[in-house]
Amino acid sequence: MSILDKPLTPPPRRSRRRPLIILVIIFIPLIALFVFTDIHADLAFVVHSFSAPNHFTYSGHSDYVSAVAWSPDGKRIASASGDHTVQVWDAVGGGHVLTFRGHSSDVACLSWSPNGKYIVSGSIDGKIFVWDAQSGNHIYSYTGHSDAVFDVAWSPDGSRIASASNDGSVQIWDAFTGMHVISYLSTLSSRLRRSPWNAVAWSPDSKHIAIGGAGDAVVLDATTGKVSGYYGNYGGEIHSLTWSPDGIYLAIGRDDTTVQVWNVAKTALVYTYMGHSAAVLTVAWSPDGKRIASGDASGLVLIWDAFTGNHVYTYRGHADYYPGHFTSGQAVDAVAWSPDGKRIASGSADTTVQVWQAM
Questions:
Q1: Residues facing 254 on adjacent strands
Q2: 31: which residues sit within 8 A by CB, 6+ positions away?
Q3: Which residues, other chains included, contact 44 with Cβ-Cβ below 8 Å and sequence gap of 6+?
Q4: By C-alpha distance, which of 38, 45, 29, 81 is closest to 329?
Q5: pLDDT digit string (tens) for 245-297?
Q6: Up-side HSE of residue 163: CA atoms within 13 Å toward CB?
Q7: Burial status of residue 346 (CB atoms within 10 A of its CB: 0-12, 13-18, 19 or more)
Q8: 211, 279, 286, 323: which could join 297 in a potential S-S bond, CB 3.0 to 4.6 Å?
Q9: Using CA atoms, how far apart are residues 45 and 28, in angstroms rounded to an integer?
Q10: In the chain, which segments carry CATH 2.130.10.10?
Q11: Distance between CA atoms of 91 and 343, rounded to whole angstroms?
Q12: Mean pLDDT of 19-27
């Protein structure tokens, strides 16, 4: 028999068990992930990781972004940063418009005037500047605080500005002259007087302001300074608060990872939103009153139903790695809805402002 006639040895049969074992190893963790976690957030994470980010990123700052605000016409965004600047830029393309460099330290907060002509900004240096939003020209400085200014808010009627400070006072002053109107330090009870104030927000009718720091949120009459009510019922730090567009409710973001929604007139807790796993640093109510956006220290922004607390979706643009974004879990310090409610701007410790669709 020639070697050519010798029957060949058949190749060994490939085992079908190995691919099956590999598939089991892959799918069991995935099944566990979807069963024991929020499936909507998981799907969003998978989609986000394997697709281009569906947002615009403004990268004009060189340090953390502490505050963002839309112009009333929705065409521009102002952002404040630890790089000591306030920058104004185009809300669609991100084209730079102007940079205001008046502060000598981190800019912690800002607010746009209702007529869109002016911007007020507050800094860790304790100074507050009002400046022209079109030219960047400095209008005047308010120097009523003796320590860092953590929040400022322009009244909806355009006549006054409220500021919250580490000096333990909340002050209201004339928006165009800087003349001091009233300080809330002397009108508050002694148990609250010692604490710094982190947040201030005007009611839509400009008749009340809500303030927050350590402990309860407080609502005050904006003319007399009289306390209308306390909201919180326990200790901890309040980082942000926002009124509903109709002025009936108040949402309060706290360091215990919760957002509380209160009926202001009834001093009644409506519900507590517990979707976050890190301190809630910023909250914003949508213009139509239907949803709330809240950002946390882990880099997530959660969107949820304002009256049921049902989670709608999670925005992970500041939390994930993807092309052009190589930091993860950087705190979201600010969120703001566009005036038409179709977009959200979020500012983060990753030095960016991201503008994305509000689904």
A1: 238
A2: none
A3: 313, 314, 316
A4: 45
A5: 999 999 999 999 999 999 999 999 999 999 999 999 999 999 999 999 999 99
A6: 35
A7: buried
A8: 279
A9: 18
A10: 57-357
A11: 10
A12: 64
Beta strands at 170-174 and 259-263: parallel, antiparallel or unpaired: unpaired
In whole angstroms, give the CA distance from residue 70 to residue 114. 10
Residue with tokens 């609502």: 219
What the block records as the tokens of 311 is 């989670």
What are the pLDDT digits (tens) for 140-195?
999 999 999 999 999 999 999 999 999 999 999 999 999 988 888 744 444 444 57
- Does residue 148 sit in helix, strand or coil? coil
- Closest listed residue to residue 139, CA positions, set 106, 177, 84: 177
Pairing mode, strands 160-165 and 149-154: antiparallel
Backbone CA torsion sign across 233, 235, 236, 242 = positive
* Alpha-carbon torsion angle 106, 103, 63, 145, nearest 10: 20
CA atoms within 13 A on the CB side of 269: 14
Instruction: Supply the pLDDT for residue 1.
Output: 47
On whether the pTM is more than 0.85, the answer is no
Q: Which amino acid is at 6?
A: K
- Kindly provide the residue ranges of all beta strands, DSSP E only, lying in 222-273, ordered along the sequence: 227-231, 238-243, 249-254, 259-263, 268-273
> Are 303 and 292 within 8 A, CB to CB?
yes
Q: Which two tokens stand for residue 166?
A: 């580490």
Between CA 338 and CA 350, with CA 344 as vertex, the angle to 5 degrees is: 135
d(Cα 287, Cα 32) in Å, to the nearest integer?
Answer: 38
Residue 170 CA to residue 338 CA, distance in Å, equals 27
Domain 57-357: which CATH number of 3.40.50.1400, 2.130.10.10, 3.90.190.20, 1.10.10.10: 2.130.10.10
Which tokens sit at 245? 């567009």
